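Morning!

This is the sequence you dropped in the shared folder:
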Amino acid sequence: MPQKHANNRSLFWPRGKVLGGSSSLNRMIYMRGHASDYDGWAAQGCTGWGWDDVRPLFLRSEDHLTGANALHATGGPLPVSPITNPHPTAQAFVDTAVAAGHKRNEDFNGDDVRGVGFNEMTVRDGRRESGWQSFVAPVLDNSNLTVTTGALIDRVLLENGRAVGVEYVVDGARPEPAPWWSCPVARPVRPPSCCAAVSARRRTCATSASTWSPICLAWGRTCTTTR
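The structure's back. Tokens below.
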């Protein structure tokens, strides 16, 4: 779709339809966002999303390869490392910006995200570490985990205003669902007869990034199930 503010160009924006999502194909930049972003969400009613709420979770997930400090932690599943050998062209760009008066920023995950510098990356030993490799692959043998590939989420299932599961298709077809009362790891939800669905006992997480997550949530508003 032509973008008005991009000289009416249609931009190519590849998405990660692969295990690990776009973390398996993006530029591996590790950027948490500024504390004010999260505090702004909390102020708008998103309880539990303030910076003081989410910061411990970021730190728990992180394994910073230069060691722990006030901003970073070690021991988590996701490796985070600085760029230690930048390309000469990239280094010249940063040096020129600093010479022009811009602030050099050594850590864009710090208290001040303004300035110019190099991002940190989700890399270990020169290799990409996607969300899949960091968080899921190590627990593939967990009996509570089932991975379905080739699946496209149709919508989030809502019950009394609460997300209780998702409806999906696999390779263009709806798989035959197990009887809704027999789900061994989730609170049962009876989907409409045309739906294959999985339900969640505790919570449903939308992790399709900034493009598909809002779409799934918008679809969810049109589908309400009853047990």
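Headline: Residues 88-99 form the longest helix (12 residues).

More detail when I'm at my desk.
O.
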